[in-house]
Amino acid sequence: MNRPLIPLSTLVSPLSPELFLRDYWAHKPIVTHGRPARFRGLLKLPALATTEAFLRFLGRQQDLKVKAWSQDRSGKALETILSSRSAKSAYEKGHITLVTDDLDRRLPEIRDSMHALVKDLKTPQIMYQCNAYLSPPGVGSPLHWDDQEVFLIQLHGEKEWTIAPNPEIRFAHSEYFAQRSGLELAPSFIPPKKNLQTILLKPGSVLFLPRGYWHGSRTIKESFALTLTFESQCWAGLILEQLRAKLLAKEMWRMPCAEKGQNWKTLMSDLKKEIQRLQQE
């Protein structure tokens, strides 16, 4: 097997992968800067060589939908779905960011690299993918957080990021973006200015953000970047997954729900036993 194009050692250099996993992964952000040549394997892929090459790549794809991100006058984020063949003209006409999800499904070299990264990260993953972001100067995204761990790789151009910790909801399991919340009650405020940190990513730079960390962007020079996203399994999810498998192996737990009756006490008693067995494994 060929060496992955995006090894963990390159993403976190000058840190060692062991130090990164111990002190940063899922806990705090880190930015690393280096020469663009450290991603020469990515840049040798015809689709990623230049921004124009990526637009041509999109135009050749079939059955691919591309997101167009923009903001209204109030700063609220807007999203439009485009066909890949219309993406180039829309990008050249409008003040938009083109977002291409699941690039790893289109480029096998990136797919193989993502598989290798999952092994190196040593964390069970619910989902992982590589997305591409192409944006002209002046556009960006408002402060938000994601429900996944993210590596941002700057391949071309420059993008300024504003980040801040989120002590109110650590290890968020739903996203908060553009005043739209998920399963959690999101705070109705923006982090105070004293907590904001500004980071400029240039070609060869990498920014890692743990889930739930505030971040927003502004493009300085036409920017083309990749994001490697990892929806890591949390302890609650892992334990519930194992417990669910044990319960569904029994007929009484597969029975359609009815009003609480005599069966409720039986179910709760069995649940306690299964939890005790799980503790002993």
Number of helices: 9
Largest sheet, if any?
10 strands, antiparallel
N-to-C SSE series?
HHEHHEEHEHEEEEEEEEHHH
Global mean pLDDT? 89
In what range is the share of β-strand residues?
Answer: 25-35%
Overall spatial form:
globular
| Helix-strand makeup class | alpha+beta
The residue ranges in which pLDDT falls below 50 over 5 or more consecutive positions are 181-185
Helical content stands at 25-40%
What multimeric state do the chains show? single chain
From the N-terminal CA to the C-terminal CA, the straight-line distance is 36 Å
Radius of gyration: 22 Å
How many strands appear in the DSSP assignment?
A: 12
Overview of this structure, please?
The strands form 2 sheets. Strands 1, 2, 3, 4, 5, 6, 7, 10, 11 and 12 form a 10-stranded antiparallel β-sheet that branches. Strands 8-9 form a two-stranded antiparallel ribbon. It is of the alpha+beta class and 281 residues long. It is built from 9 helices and 12 strands. The longest helix has 19 residues.
Brief descriptors of the model:
281 residues, alpha+beta, two-stranded antiparallel sheet, 12 strands, 30% strand
Short recap of the structure:
The protein has 281 residues and is of the alpha+beta class. The chain has helices at residues 8-12, 17-23, 40-43, 51-60, 84-93, 108-121, 235-248, 251-254, 262-280; strands spanning 30-32, 65-71, 77-83, 97-100, 125-135, 140-144, 149-164, 176-177, 180-181, 197-201, 206-209, 214-232.
